[in-house]
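Service request form, structural biology core

Requester: graduate student, group of Dr. S.
Request type: structure prediction, single chain
Budget code: on file
Notes: please return the result as C-alpha cells.

Sequence provided:
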Amino acid sequence: MNEIRKNNVPMNKKDLINKQDMNIVIVGHVDHGKSTVIGRLLADTDSLPKGKLEQVKEICRRNSKPFEYAFSLDALKDEQAQGITIDVARCFFQTEQRNYLIIDAPGHIEFLKNMITGAARAEAALLVIDAYEGVKENSRRHGYMLSMLGIRQVCVLVNKMDLTGYSEKSFKRIVRQYRRFLRKINMEPVCFIPISAFEGENIANHSEKMPWYERMNVLEVLDSLKKEELAEDKPFRMPVQDVYKFTKNCDMRRIVAGTIETGKISVGDEVIFYPSGKRTRVKSLEAFNREPIKTLGAGWACGFTVTEQIYVKRGEIACLSKEMPPKVTGRMLVNLFWLGRNPLVMDKTYYLKLGTAKVGMQLEEVRSVMDASSLDNKKKDFVERHEVAECVLSLDRHIAFDLVGEIAATSRFVIVDDYEISGGGIVMRDLEDHTSWVRDKVLMRNYKWIGSDISAEKRAEKYNQEAELVLITGERESPRKEVARLLERQLFDEGKFVYYLGIGSLLYGVDADIVANNITPFGKREHIRRLAEVANIMLESGMILIVSAIELDASDLDVIKTGIPAERISVVWLGNEITTDIPANLVIEDVDDIERAVETIRKSFKGKNGARAW
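Core staff response, request fulfilled:
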C-alpha cells in the first residue's frame, strides 16, 4: 500500500514524508468566518474528499439554503443549525512545502475552554476578524490567550472584505486598532491580511479586487512561518500514565508506560522519576507487535522496563539524569484563565491536573487580575469568569513540572472544580513551600538509594499485606499507646509482619543530638522528618508500621508525606475533640473501650489497597 489518506483524500506517502509538518490553530469571534476560512483552504489546496464540495452544494440547493464553505467542515448537525462551531475540529491540508494540521478552536464565549485544548499544541495561529463588525471582545480575549499559551507566530486575517467593498480604509482601521491592543500584551503579529474567505480572495491567490495589498496571501504566509524547535531536541519528559505488572508464565516485567512529550530515551539511559527522585536504568523499550527497539522519541506512546525494582506511580515524570531536571515543589506562581461559572476563591480545594498528575490545590494569593478583553488590572482576592490572573497556588503535595519558557508541554495545567474543567494556565515560577527543606533531602536519599532485589510485590505476596504506616494520634489524654499496642498484638497473632513504634522511642537514639540541644520548633520538624525516614526504611521491608504520637498536625503530616507516598499512610485520631488541623482518615470519639476502638480501626481499613487483609 503506497498511499495514505487524510480527510479521506489520497496522498502520496513519499510526498508527506519529505515535507515538514506544522500545527496551526485558528481562532476568532463567533460568525467572523473561521470555518469558512478553513473550508476555503481545504478547497483551494484540493484537500477535500473527492466530490465533497459538489455534494455540499447539492444539499444546500435541495434545502434552499445558501452555500457556505463552512458546511464542508462542520460535521455536527447542531453546528450547522446554530451557525457556530462547538467542538475543536482537526483537519489536514498540504502545500508544496508542508503538511498542515489545522485546529479549528471555538470562537463562541461558551466554548473558550475547548479553545485552550485546541491551542495547546499549535506552533502558530490564524486569528480571524470580521472587517464589517470589527474587533470584538472575543478577538481581544483570543489574542491574550494565544499570548498566554506562548504562541508567538500569529497572522491576523481581516475577513469579509467583500462586505466593505474591499475598502483599504476599513482594513487599515482594524489593523491600527488591533495592533495597538496586541502591543499592550507584548505581541507583534507576523502580518495582517485582508481576505474574503467566501469569495476566495487572498487565500491562495493575489486578489485583483484589492490591488492596494501587495504582500503574501494566506498560503504563502503559512509556508513562510518558522518551525518550532523539534520536541526531540528538548530534555526528555514522559509523564507516567501507569505501571503495568505481569505475572503470567513467570513474566515478572514491570512496564512504566506513558507518552513521551519531549526528548528521546534509549536502552541503558539512567532515568530519574520526579517528584520522588528515584532512579534506575532502562532495561528495554516495550511496544505491542513490534520488533525490539533501542531508542524512541517525542510523540511516542511507549513503555520501558527498568533494572531496579523501584516504586513509582502515575503522576510522576520520567527524566534523564544527564539532562536538566524539572522543578519540584508544592507552590507555584502561575498565569491562569478562569472559565468556571463560579469564581476561583480562597479557602476552597480544587484539583490541578498537570501531565498525568492530579493533586488537590488551593488559591493562596491573587497578585493581579486582568480583564482579558479590556486589559484593565484589578486588585482582589478572587478570580471571576473570563478573567486572567497572576496567582500563587498551593498544592496538597509536591509535583514535577517545567516553566513555560523552558518546556511548554509540561508547564500547562487545567483546574477542575466540581468535575468540570474550569480553568487553565501555565507555570511561570516555582516557589518554596514549608516542606522544601525536606524535599531536597528526600530527593538526595532516593537518588542514592541502594535498592533490594526483592520487589514490593514479592514482599506483599509473601506477607499477605501491603506496607502501611498507621499514625495513631489524638488528645494528650487519649489512649494512643494502648490502642496501638493492641492493634499490633492482634495483627502479629494473625501472622502479619507488623511493628509498633512509639514516637518517644526515637528521642534518645536517632534524635539524641536534637535532645542534647533542647527541642526547638525547628527541632520538632527535624524530629518528624527523621521519624519519616525510619518509617520509610521499615515500609521498604514490607512491614505494617504503627506509630503513636500526641496531637500531630497537618504540617507534621506534610513533612511525613514528603518522605513517604501519601497512599501508604493512614491517620487515626482518638478523642472527642480534634485539637489540630490534621486531616484524619478515621476519627474515634469513644475511646473508653480499647478493644472496640481497635475493632473500629480494623473494620475501617480492611481491604484497603487491595492486597492487604487486616
